[in-house]
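Handout, section 4.2: multi-component inputs.
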Amino acid sequence: MKRFLAFVSKEFKHILRDYRTLLILFGMPIAQILLFGFAITNEIKDAKIAILDFSKDNTTQEISNKILSSGYFLLYKNLSSTRDIEPAFKEGIIKEVIIFEPEFGKNLEKSKLANIQIIADASDPNLANMLIGYTSSIILDYQKDLLKGKTLPPIINTDIKMLFNPNLKSVFMFVPGLMAVILLLVSAMMTSISIAKEKELGTMEILLVSPLNPLQIIVGKVVPYFFISLINYIIIIILAKNVFLVPITGSIILLILESVLFLLTSLSLGILISTISNNQQTALMISISALMLPAIILSGYIFPVENMPLPLQVISNIIPAKWFIIIVRGIMLKGVSFSYIVTETAVLAGMTLFFVLLSIKKFKIRLE
Amino acid sequence: MSSVIIENLSKSYGDVSAVDDISLNIDTGEIFGFIGPDGAGKTTLFRMLTSLLIPDKGKATVEGFDIVKEFKKIRSLVGYMPGRFSLYQDLTVEENLNFFASVFGTTIQENYNLIKDIYVLLEPFRKRKAGKLSGGMKQKLALCCALIHKPKILFLDEPTTGVDPVSRNEFWDMLGYLKNEGITIVVSTPYMDEANKCDRIALMQRGKILETNYLKNIIARYPGKLFAVKSDIMFILLKDLRDYKNSNSVFSFGDSLHYSDSRTDVTKDDILNYLKSKEHKNILIEEIEPNIEDCFMDLMSK
Amino acid sequence: MQNNFIIESENLTKKFGHFTAVDAISFSVKPGEIFGFLGANGAGKTTAMRMLCGLSIPTSGKATVAGFDVYKQTEQIKKNIGYMSQKFSLYDDLTITENINFYGGIYGLSKSKLKEKTEYLLDLLKIPEMHTGKLLVSLPLGWKQKLAFSVAIIHEPKIVFLDEPTGGVDPITRRQFWDMIYEASHNGVTVFVTTHYMDEAEYCNRVSMMVDGRIASLDTPYNLKKEYNAGNMHEVFVKIARGR
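Output:
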């Protein structure tokens, strides 16, 4: 035990004396969460649009006002002819044009049928979709107001409610993913690099020739990073909760326990990487390409898994971060209890066990 | 008594055979030197003996324990200092020493006697980080770390490479002192002149042992006579001696050339006459006793 | 007076932060001379050599190499020197001919000249035809080292700088290497060499002993041995190092 404690204290000294890495370890999570919270956003705010109103009556005026006062849109210019539409888009400023047909109000009054055309700039398809969605729901809303108190043909009323994230705040989406990436980065990457560093320096040779057993070396390497990751993790939660007001609707204890499980998965992955890399550079390359990129791209962190082609969806199942993200979103946003995430937890636990066993088996008690 | 018994040990990496069928014994309490250039297989051999590598063929025991099956026992018995002093550069002298002591389940105090002569030299730099020490100091610290658990046998892989001559001398003095404490010392070096610091030596080249013996026996077995030759223009002298019909080998040695002749009954005058015929001036010829480098080159050329 | 010396250095100094790696060294080297820089690792040999090669700008002091200033004319210096470093400057994953072609190429040798040089080198180094197409990594250390030297002088420079060229090679190869150095010097190339093998100091025309960034002593090996009453250069060094 004394041997082991000496080992751990040595590890802490390495970490604490390397100011630059320490700064990255703690600075990066904070920088990332602030970035995702403030800068990168999927929400629409003040999107510039143009209106081509052939009718110019009260109704079109009311609809326009409703759209423009929603806070999502800003009127950039009024067009007077269909010929203006394309040049207006080419200018690159407006994202959408709303066109009211001539005699819009009268048509609505008389034939109960009037047409609005919405043209969106689909060079950014996601944005275009969202704009159209927002616009149509505002128009629908207006329509419902019109119908009030009138008995007219039965109509199917679609009442949309965004559950769990009613304001569609993207930071809510990103926080769970961010947690996964940070935990992976700190624990897996740093562990693998620090073991590889001992190989590079030649100190691993001495450690192997000492009575320390491999398990002590592995666990000794892992313990400091376990604590550092945990601290990091708590910083993220505090920031998310207090700065971005991300709710934690579920049990916070459950959340932390699940995160510890994922932490163990990451650490075992780190050890596994270190067993196949002989220097720090290789460890870094493998960590980034085999862990970080899949965790960012295939886990559902940024891009929804459901929208991926089937083969990628299948591949995403072997990425631990995917399961962790499902768990965290469940607990934080939906407030689910453990019984809802048993499967995900079991998958994660199974993976951890597999990686731990594999890395113990692969960890060499000799060089070569 | 033999501390190390090596029988037909071989290890290769792909096509390159790093250690090729080596057999020898190292006696308890002696300083045994493996001498050879880079790529001779010294490091591979040391790693096999310290149980870090598994041999392809052959077997070996260290203090009676098999290097493959009983590797755990070996690991608590040996002190090992790998080439390039493997220290934690960001830990201080004291922290390095304390760390290695606890890894071996001991403390500095417990074995202070053994390291004290070396440690007093390091004492002034106790709080300095290992990365900021001079080569000689790093070497001493690495030796302390390898000694901290009072090993029965020390394996030192190129401990003097890249260290200045003064520190090198001091280092060998320390090894002499450790030998008196009864520790068997196995050391490797690319510097031929360090052969005379060892009790017995093995000359290594490309994975093979050229010769294992006491230095004086190796020198006694040098075939033929050897002469040190000087003249005014050494560059031409070298060419002329090489072109001499009885020439066996000619090598530069410091300010003279070492020349060996293929005849057993050759005299100084034979060579002098030849060189005079080539119009050399201020010729100096002297029959000398070969040194280790002469022997090594002779064995290499066979 | 600059014509008499191919390298001249006056109070050349290099500091890294508070650490003075090279401390006001002054010396001059004659054309065709084999000039040795001796000292332990960390004595400042490599730093001094890098300044003279134009790879590192001095902190203070003056120096010219082949008549060019080490502060302002580093590009001209580089055209007039050859350099071979401790770790071979050759590419392990290229073949012998590819290495020769590459280095010949960066010094702007013409195709016909390159072909002629390649043949000459392969002949000189006695490298059999069958090996020229093999990757360097598979060749013996001795060959690589000799090839590295030949490549360093492929553009017929006035001066060649050798940084610890013989570290870790066997005694025969070391001597063959020195034979090549002598030959180059005989052909008028100035050789500036650092080493920590003290016996190699004897092969130099003049030797400067470096201790802690300063030149502790500079003379011919013969005079140094006489001055310090020593039998060989090893003893000279030990006496200088202890005597400070």
